[in-house]
Amino acid sequence: MNKALRRAVIAGNWKMNKTPGEAAELMEQLKPLCEGAGCGVVVCAPFVDLHAVLEAAQGTGIGVGAQNCHWEQSGAFTGEISAPMLASMGVQYVIIGHSERRQYFGETDATVNRRVRAALAGGLTVILCVGEVLTQREQGVTCELVGMQTKIALGGVAPEELKNVIIAYEPVWAIGTGRTATAEQANEVCRAIRGTVSSLYGAAAGDAMTIQYGGSMNAGNAAELLAQPDVDGGLIGGASLKPADFAAIIAAAGK
Predict the structure, then answer these.
(1) pTM above 0.85, yes or no
(2) Overall domain count for the chain
């Protein structure tokens, strides 16, 4: 991390876990552990939990995010949620393009771009996910692939909107598998993403971009990963559901 240039952010992705009551209970456990955090802290909860999480987060420094949003403001899109709906609740962040959305629900680079633009227009801060599958890493095309994903996702995004974008590098082969990219591998790809942003918006914009690592970061490996110069935080899955582990990652990011 380079805190002189950009803000470190640790975001918890609860995925499809917790009822509203369980979410409120987890937040009560997290709140004292997040006090005085030396980094940004965000909790991205399922739609049905957002009210409970927003209520629990009042008066704290914890930001609240959703896990997806549609590209239209309203319409005949059964089961979808729009950016204005989220913003009206007080939600501040939204994850876009998570690998599970791409893998299981037909998300494409083109629809990611549409969602990113809609979320930004709706006043949300986007956590934009990019990353490669194992075959692509073995073929040696990781940096080219994530560069392409980044360029497509940011198509039509104005320079002044970039301050409301965080990019999360997610090696798909490391999500939920217990496998983790080495700290050097993570930094290499985060640096490549930063280079892509610089090529699109200039070096200052690249230097200012917060780029998280999102592949099975946990309490045991967080310090090593976050010590890398181009890793500015983490998008945390399973460990974000364990208060002590999440607190340890936040502490590592605050150093």
Answers:
(1) yes
(2) 1
